[in-house]
Specification:
Strand order of the largest sheet: 1-2
Largest sheet: 2 strands, antiparallel
Shape: elongated
Structural class: mainly alpha
Number of strands: 2
Strand content: 5-15%
Helix content: 40-55%
Number of domains: 1
Distance between the termini: 44 Å
Length: about 130
Protein backbone atom coordinates (compact mmCIF):
# COMPACT_ATOMS: atom_id res chain seq x y z
CA UNK A 1 0.00 0.00 0.00
CA UNK A 2 1.30 3.47 -0.91
CA UNK A 3 1.32 5.92 2.02
CA UNK A 4 -0.75 9.09 1.71
CA UNK A 5 1.09 12.14 0.55
CA UNK A 6 1.94 14.66 3.23
CA UNK A 7 0.32 18.06 2.75
CA UNK A 8 2.88 20.81 2.31
CA UNK A 9 2.41 23.84 4.58
CA UNK A 10 1.48 27.04 2.77
CA UNK A 11 4.57 29.16 2.57
CA UNK A 12 4.47 32.91 2.92
CA UNK A 13 0.74 33.09 3.64
CA UNK A 14 0.07 35.05 6.79
CA UNK A 15 -3.02 36.40 8.40
CA UNK A 16 -3.68 40.01 7.41
CA UNK A 17 -2.35 42.32 10.12
CA UNK A 18 -3.46 45.56 8.54
CA UNK A 19 -6.95 46.89 9.19
CA UNK A 20 -9.20 46.28 6.16
CA UNK A 21 -12.82 47.42 6.20
CA UNK A 22 -15.04 48.50 3.34
CA UNK A 23 -17.65 49.90 5.81
CA UNK A 24 -14.92 52.08 7.40
CA UNK A 25 -13.86 53.41 3.99
CA UNK A 26 -17.53 54.10 3.23
CA UNK A 27 -17.72 56.07 6.51
CA UNK A 28 -14.61 58.06 5.46
CA UNK A 29 -16.31 58.85 2.12
CA UNK A 30 -19.08 60.56 4.10
CA UNK A 31 -16.73 63.43 5.02
CA UNK A 32 -15.89 66.37 2.72
CA UNK A 33 -12.61 66.53 0.80
CA UNK A 34 -9.71 67.28 3.16
CA UNK A 35 -8.51 70.22 1.07
CA UNK A 36 -11.91 71.69 0.08
CA UNK A 37 -11.76 74.56 2.58
CA UNK A 38 -8.09 75.41 1.97
CA UNK A 39 -7.57 78.77 0.18
CA UNK A 40 -4.90 77.37 -2.14
CA UNK A 41 -7.27 74.59 -3.24
CA UNK A 42 -9.62 77.12 -4.81
CA UNK A 43 -6.86 78.50 -7.03
CA UNK A 44 -5.23 75.25 -8.11
CA UNK A 45 -7.73 72.41 -8.44
CA UNK A 46 -11.36 72.72 -7.44
CA UNK A 47 -13.02 69.71 -5.86
CA UNK A 48 -14.69 67.53 -8.43
CA UNK A 49 -16.11 64.04 -8.41
CA UNK A 50 -17.00 61.78 -5.53
CA UNK A 51 -15.11 61.42 -2.30
CA UNK A 52 -12.54 58.62 -2.06
CA UNK A 53 -10.73 57.11 0.91
CA UNK A 54 -7.09 57.98 0.17
CA UNK A 55 -4.43 55.89 1.92
CA UNK A 56 -1.50 57.62 3.64
CA UNK A 57 1.64 56.84 1.63
CA UNK A 58 5.25 56.57 2.86
CA UNK A 59 5.34 58.57 6.06
CA UNK A 60 7.71 57.97 8.97
CA UNK A 61 4.96 58.72 11.51
CA UNK A 62 3.06 55.60 10.44
CA UNK A 63 4.26 52.54 12.40
CA UNK A 64 6.69 50.49 10.31
CA UNK A 65 4.52 47.35 10.15
CA UNK A 66 1.52 49.39 8.96
CA UNK A 67 3.23 51.42 6.20
CA UNK A 68 2.54 50.93 2.54
CA UNK A 69 5.18 48.76 0.90
CA UNK A 70 5.41 48.05 -2.80
CA UNK A 71 1.95 47.07 -3.96
CA UNK A 72 0.60 46.65 -0.40
CA UNK A 73 -1.37 49.65 0.82
CA UNK A 74 -1.32 50.89 4.38
CA UNK A 75 -4.26 49.74 6.49
CA UNK A 76 -7.65 51.35 5.97
CA UNK A 77 -7.23 53.04 9.37
CA UNK A 78 -4.67 55.26 7.60
CA UNK A 79 -7.20 56.78 5.16
CA UNK A 80 -8.51 60.29 4.78
CA UNK A 81 -11.16 61.80 2.45
CA UNK A 82 -10.15 63.35 -0.87
CA UNK A 83 -12.27 64.14 -3.92
CA UNK A 84 -11.36 62.33 -7.15
CA UNK A 85 -9.39 65.30 -8.54
CA UNK A 86 -7.34 65.90 -5.38
CA UNK A 87 -6.68 62.16 -4.93
CA UNK A 88 -5.32 61.99 -8.47
CA UNK A 89 -3.27 65.15 -7.91
CA UNK A 90 -1.75 63.70 -4.71
CA UNK A 91 -0.54 60.64 -6.62
CA UNK A 92 0.65 62.69 -9.60
CA UNK A 93 2.75 65.26 -7.75
CA UNK A 94 3.75 63.16 -4.76
CA UNK A 95 2.09 63.18 -1.38
CA UNK A 96 4.65 65.33 0.47
CA UNK A 97 4.55 68.05 -2.19
CA UNK A 98 0.73 67.83 -2.25
CA UNK A 99 0.56 68.24 1.55
CA UNK A 100 2.86 71.26 1.45
CA UNK A 101 0.96 72.87 -1.43
CA UNK A 102 -2.43 72.58 0.28
CA UNK A 103 -1.25 72.95 3.87
CA UNK A 104 -2.65 69.64 5.14
CA UNK A 105 -1.24 66.93 7.38
CA UNK A 106 -2.63 63.63 6.03
CA UNK A 107 -1.36 61.59 9.00
CA UNK A 108 -3.01 63.95 11.47
CA UNK A 109 -6.29 63.84 9.50
CA UNK A 110 -6.24 60.04 9.30
CA UNK A 111 -5.51 59.72 13.03
CA UNK A 112 -8.24 62.18 13.99
CA UNK A 113 -10.78 60.23 11.92
CA UNK A 114 -9.60 56.88 13.35
CA UNK A 115 -9.99 58.29 16.91
CA UNK A 116 -13.26 60.08 16.09
CA UNK A 117 -15.96 59.30 18.70
CA UNK A 118 -18.36 58.28 15.92
CA UNK A 119 -15.97 55.61 14.60
CA UNK A 120 -17.54 52.32 15.69
CA UNK A 121 -15.21 50.38 13.33
CA UNK A 122 -12.15 51.03 15.53
CA UNK A 123 -13.88 49.51 18.56
CA UNK A 124 -14.81 46.37 16.61
CA UNK A 125 -11.24 46.04 15.27
CA UNK A 126 -9.72 46.40 18.75
CA UNK A 127 -12.13 43.83 20.17
CA UNK A 128 -11.25 41.38 17.39
CA UNK A 129 -7.52 41.89 18.03
CA UNK A 130 -8.02 41.27 21.76
CA UNK A 131 -9.87 37.99 21.07
CA UNK A 132 -7.15 36.78 18.72
CA UNK A 133 -4.34 37.70 21.17
CA UNK A 134 -6.07 36.44 24.31
Amino acid sequence: MIPRRRKQPKMGVREETRFRSEPYKQWIRGFPCSVADKPSAQRVIKCHGGIEAAHVQADDRVPYEERSAGSIKAGDNWTYPLCVHHHHAAHSMGHSKFDAMFGIDRVKIALSLWNHPGNRHRIKWEQRKERSNG
